[in-house]
Amino acid sequence: xxxxxxxxxxxxxxxxxxxxxxxxxxxxxxxxxxxxxxxxxxxxxxxxxxxxxxxxxxxxxxxxxxxxxxxxxxxxxxxxxxxxxxxxxxxxxxxxxxxxxxxxxxxxxxxxxxxxxxxxxxxxxxxxxxxxxxxxxxxxxxxxxxxxxxxxxxxxxxxxxxxxxxxxxxxxxxxxxxxxxxxxxxxxxxxxxxxxxxxxxxxxxxxxxxxxxxxxxxxxxxxxxxxxxxxxxxxxxxxxxxxxxxxxxxxxxxxxxxxxxxxxxxxxxxxxxxxxxxxxxxxxxxxxxxxxxxxxxxxxxxxxxxxxxxxxxxxxxxxxxxxxxxxxxxxxxxxxxxxxxxxxxxxxxxxxxxxxxxxxxxxxxxxxxxxxxxxxxxxxxxxxxxxxxxxxxxxxxxxxxxxxxxxxxxxxxxxxxxxxxxxxxxxxxxxxxxxxxxx
Length: 439
Prior knowledge:
Blueprint: E1 5-9, H1 16-24, E2 43-48, E3 51-57, H2 68-83, E4 86-92, H3 99-110, E5 115-120, E6 142-144, H4 153-163, E7 176-182, H5 189-197, E8 215-221, E9 224-230, H6 243-257, E10 261-267, H7 274-285, E11 289-295, H8 306-317, E12 326-328, H9 337-351, H10 357-370, E13 375-376, E14 379-380, E15 383-390, E16 395-400, H11 408-421, E17 430-435
Parallel strand pairs: 1-3, 1-4, 4-5, 5-6, 7-9, 7-10, 10-11, 11-12, 16-17
Antiparallel strand pairs: 2-3, 8-9, 13-14, 15-16
């Protein structure tokens, strides 16, 4: 299922990014020691009264500027508009209603998307300043907001989610496995899908960044029915100078959110790069089942140690994803594609696996007897029981006497014991720690 998308749009310097950060809140400042997590995202989750949406920020629009940068901003904003279910148009009360605001408003109205008008920088408490009432000239009712102080953001979100009342999340067909093919540019993602389908479904070239949008391709074979999502290559942030490419990364992120399995493609010729691990980190963060596909295996010189050595490199650089199986393929020749499909089906099943509470607690009892829970200042961790609460990824709650005593290292130990007892290959496992009084 996918979340509705809300785009923040407006001319430059009206406070779009400040509003974005206020609406997303502390979700944007995720600890950045996890691969793939960055602090200056252009997308983030917004939650309001039990409902959620994906919020995307855009560069400022100058409708008639010939400036190259501003024209790129206009193009990337148009991509956001095309993607969005609701658009927030941001204006600046201090400068009043200017001609560019009117042009932007008419551009957005022509998109036929639901539109909410935010008059930003109304920072004083009480009635908005007189300039606010100029915005009633536009055919959209204005809402006074201070993105710095948060005034009016509740009214703004109320209006946004009213427009989303008719939005219904698309239920995925349980018989279809959705697969996002992700990776840095030019590793062969489009070539893989073209080989699988036997047709040139995706544009293939040696120019990095050819695939701008995410492209869905339905495939049915002896292994089952699959929806393959080809995504734009994700390169290092410092290399993302083209604003449109930033939105390609956004769409790749959205593809990860709506897939069942991520196929993380590597290039056997160039080896593993830091960007490969960051791409994988996006899939890890989303809790998706993963397969590492080493492409172009036909193009390198091999001996008996080539594959074992490459596996060691994967184990070292993808230590945070040690559960993900690696497949050595060739999108050009079709080498080991059957093996890839077998792994896709397998990790889909493991990510949806449920374990009974009785079996889980048998494993927990054995594990805690083998290695005693940690102590601190004479106080020992007591784990009363555990139970599984969800799948995709498998998520478990532990009830204990003191969550602070439940150190990360002991959680990792218990995760390893669970993986030994049950086949969770290909899928991350998540733990939730809850305190409970020992009575």
